[in-house]
Design brief:
The protein is α+β, with helices and mostly antiparallel strands. It has three helices and three strands, in the order βααββα. A three-stranded antiparallel beta sheet has the order 1-3-2, covered by helices on one side. α2 packs across α3.
Length: 77
């Protein structure tokens, strides 16, 4: 399982208008979701600025940990 959150989200939420925040979150999570397709991982949920994905579920795969690790490093780039 991989859990990610946006650093500085609370500060941004004070500065941005609600519509701007929704647009920002949509852009960020749409980008992050594209990695799920690339690495064949399952999106569990997105709530606020938090994103959770899993590998090896619901279909087991022998390299599930490696998939998540590679995806995490690519998300940082």
């Amino acid at each position: 399982m991989l859990f990610a959150a946006i650093v500085g989200f609370m500060g941004l939420s004070i500065k941005l208008e609600p519509g701007e925040m929704v647009d920002l979150l949509n852009t960020v999570f749409s980008y992050l979701d594209s990695f799920g397709v690339q690495y064949d991982v399952e999106k569990i949920r997105t709530i606020g600025d938090n994103d959770m994905v899993a590998s090896g579920a619901p279909t087991p795969c022998p390299d599930h940990a490696h998939r998540l690790a590679r995806m995490a490093f690519d998300r940082l780039a």
